[in-house]
Amino acid sequence: MFGTWFYHKRVRTAVSVFGSLFNNLYVLRENSSGEIISQVRVPLSYAPKRNFIERLSEMINGEEAERKVAIKLPRMSFEITSLQYDPNRQLPKVNNFVKSISGSTTSKRKFYTAVPYDINFQLNIYAKGQDDALQIVEQILPYFNPQYSVTIKPFSDYTDILEDVPIVLNGVSFQDNYEGPLDERRTIIYTLDFLMKVSFYGPQQNGAIIRQVNNNIFNIGAGLSDSDVLLNNIQITPTPSNVSVDSDFDFNISYLDTPAP
Amino acid sequence: MATNPYISRGARSEQNLYEDLVIESLKFYGQDVYYLPREIVSQDQIFKEEIESRFTDAYKIEMYVENTEGFDGQGDLFTKFGVEIRDQATFVVARRRWKHLIGNYLDSKNFRPREGDIVYLPMSNSMFEIMKVETETPFYQLNQLPTFRLRCELFEYNDERFYTSIDEIDEVVVEGSYKFNLQMATAEEARATATLTTDENGRVVSSEITYGGQGYFFQIPNVSVSTIPIEVARFGNSSLNLGLFRRYSLPYNKEGSGALEFFFYPTSLPDSNEYHGLVTTGGDSNAKTFIFGVDNQGNLAYTTFENDSTDDLLFTSGEQIEIGQWNHILIGNDGASKYAYINGVRVLNDSSQDSANFISSAAGLGLNTIGLLGGVNFGLASGYIDEFRARVGTSADLVSDSSGITVPSSAFDSDASTAVLEHFTARSPSFLANIDSATGTVSSLTILDSGDLYPSPGIVTIASPYEQRNYEIGETVIQQNEEYTIQGRVAEWSDSDYILKLYNVGATDGQYHTFTTTTSVVGQTTFASLAPKSVTEEQDIQQQAQNTIFDNFEADFLDFSEANPFGDMQ
């Protein structure tokens, strides 16, 4: 029934947008005299992935390094946890906006109202020490009050179409299993739940551009057998004639005594 | 009821035997491992965590690996943070051996192995962190505790420092650290460059620093200039290059008869309708100013400034000046007529025109202006002059044989009629470089000797600030900036592509900084000193990190008319 292929990569873009927010966070460690002894740009990755590719990438340092350590910390990952329709942002479904088609003076591209959805993201921060984790958390929290908006370009072909996308921080929780048997590993993971308000667009449609308007003016009932008698025709056309949707143009108005063809 | 005093469970001899057997068994069935005691360099007093740990010692000791069918634990897990290996192992080590080989060398808390220390198992190339030390297992056999049992988990690497001098251990730092990659400028690329401007006498009048270089902080570099080419000199020394708006004026002023004699080496001849200016004569009350030049065939041509068209141009004929070789030329005036010789052949004997003065200070070689002169389009002579002589006297004095002269086969000597003798011995200029030690650049050159007859444009070479030394793996390097010093440790150095990889990078002011491209990075052991051209950060800590990928993507879909607040920390 639907049948028209289209793919605006909205979820893919949402993942990239979310990743780009947190790809430049650092953990700095200092010695007792206040000098920095190491600074780490915290690695970030999208959590769901093909496990064999991950395994292969770990082989890059050779056989001897493959099982040398359990994991290298700190690191962050994020994933989509759910998508849900947001009726509060739904605009009238027949609303649309148009953009010109490059090189065409007879057609325009029509975009219908998008369908609003909320994408829930979960960002996880895994650190060996509390201070490392808190450095990362503290570099994030102040920007969300509780939302932070980014402006994105939803269509790669139409980079002048911009869309503000709010990202809301819904909550922060953490896990620190410091209690228990001595030989158990302590794990510190902070979990930040975000909600990104995105819009899904359907297929774009092409429509014709109205290039001529004819207005026939009749004297109602003045003719034989009460027929209408044409008095005048007003024809309106754009000038110059080869304009597109986004062009600046004026109108030619012609008054004709005969009906428009 | 008390224990039976006649049955002893703790006879010293039995205990010793038992312990010896345990040690022997561990030597039979154990593995050689390295025990790495942890040094806590700095500690968070609020959270009670180590901020910086380092492992600088490695003690080799035998331990028995209790696991028989593989390590315990959950094994390889695929988590949301990637692959995590949760191997667990249990090691058994003899008390006496541990104390003898390790405990005695530890400063404190040295009566048993310590949680947090590391056991490196070469068999599997794994680093196990001691999570718990069981001191009472097995439990008081013969009233004695002969072993420690170490419950370990595979180590979580968190930028700890390993300097044990055992390569396979220390490599974990290189493999796991967050690194800065510095593309270093070579010594040649750091070298400052300058250009020279010379006047018509081939003396340097000014210099311009075209690139100040980098790394000129400490030593004033040597400045050398290109050697003076002598390939086209007639009898050694050097020659006067006329094709450089250079004119040699006669340092002698006299009226009367005289002649100019020299060797001319044209490197090219003019196009048609153009002439290369070679000699100008002086004017006085009785003489006009003549210009002698060469046409596109090598003929000698001449005119006067008073002429106004090429119709007035006068030619010699019969002998041409040859391109690419030395030609002997003699032009003079004996009071009655002008005469000229090319390679000993007389090509001009003209008494119809006004006389010319060849021995005044206005006379000389070459032109210092070009264009329409005397109605004729003159350009610069392209070539060299050597062995110049100005002579006074009549033609009889100057030319003994009116049918010709002998072309000299050696350098000119002065004689009674010689007014000026010039072999054009050039002298190189010399300079002193002035450095701006704040920026590490060469700011200017002071001319110590302007030189003479130096070919223009001379090539000046300012020595590189760097000695081409190599950094050493593991050495500390520092880069001093105005407000802070940033340092790191060398993980890799390539002397072929000049990439320096550093780990454990940090600045002294407690802030995030990266290396700048303006100052040099100095090795504290080798004193190698090069400056970076570019700095990138390498995320080896996690192979699947996508930070850079998101970096590269974000321009495609983010509108950064508003800046990304999560952007740079710099």
Strand order of the largest sheet of chain A: 3-5-8-11-10-9
The percent of residues in helical segments of chain A reads 10-25%
Using the CA coordinates, give the radius of gyration of chain B.
Answer: 44 Å
Number of strands of chain B: 39
> Overall pLDDT of chain A, averaged?
89
CATH superfamily of the largest domain in chain A: Myoviridae tail sheath stabiliser
The shape of chain A is elongated
**Biggest sheet record of chain A:** 6 strands, mixed
Mean pLDDT of chain B: 84
> What would you say the CATH architecture of the largest domain in chain A is?
2-Layer Sandwich
CATH class of the largest domain in chain A: Alpha Beta
Instruction: Kindly state the number of beta strands of chain A.
Output: 15
How large is the radius of gyration of chain A?
A: 30 Å
Low-pLDDT sequence parts of chain A: none
Distance between the termini of chain A: 38 Å
Q: Sheet bearing the most strands of chain B, described? A: 8 strands, mixed
Low-confidence parts of chain B, pLDDT < 50 over ≥5 residues? none
> What name does the CATH topology of the largest domain in chain A carry?
STM4215-like
User: Which strand-content bin applies to the residues of chain A?
Assistant: 35-45%
What does this structure look like?
Chain A has helices at residues 10-21, 51-57, 63-66, 130-140; strands at residues 26-30, 36-41, 44-46, 71-72, 75-85, 96-100, 107-112, 115-127, 147-152, 163-176, 188-200, 205-208, 213-219, 229-239, 250-256. With 261 residues, chain A is mainly beta. In chain A, strands 3-5-8-11-10-9 form a six-stranded mixed sheet. Chain A has a three-stranded antiparallel sheet with strand order 6-7-12, with no helix packed on it. Chain A has a three-stranded antiparallel sheet with strand order 13-14-15, with no helix packed on it. Chain A is elongated, with a radius of gyration of 30 Å. Chain B is mainly β and 570 residues long. Chain B is built from five helices and 39 strands. In chain B, the strands form seven sheets. In chain B, strands 17, 19, 20, 21, 22, 26, 27 and 28 form an eight-stranded mixed sheet that branches. Chains A and B meet through α1, β1, β2, β3 and α2 of A and β2, β3, β6, β8 and β9 of B.
